[in-house]
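--- STAGE predict ---
source: upstream dedup step, 1 unique chain passed
mode: sequence only
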Amino acid sequence: MPDQNPKSSFIAFSDTLLSMIDGPVTWFREKVVEPNRKQYPWYHQQFRRVPTIDQCYTDDYVCIFEADQQWKRDKMVDNEILSIVRARFEDCVLYESPDHMTKCLPFKEAYEKAAENWFIKYGDLGATGKARECYMKQKHRLLWERRHGKVGTGMKETKSEVSAEE
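--- STAGE serialize ---
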């Protein structure tokens, strides 16, 4: 049976031209590129580590942006780690009650240490924290500890205060 809607010569020409241009590209992608590509599930996506904010120049905005994105990914990972440790402690308390005060002590200590470390790094930065602010917080903390001792232990006495007491 003859074709009811014959293609016009222009449509036939454009289809031929498209297959001449797209054909080799499609063949190369299907036969060369895709067989040699590693397939990762989306939940195991590997990001390359980028330079941290202290390795970026002050006028290198691309590097600063990448450092901020890396910091956000690291924060999301740390949030999930803290969530998992908290869930383990809560599950232990639920399962071991009423003896949870003794049996879940290792889980509680692990959670408290993880929460302390999370707060040291990300606490008081707010929802819009950036890598530069986090870096400055770390720098100020290190300077404080150099001058006054570990945070939370009180301030060291200066030499003038020690000599005044004698």
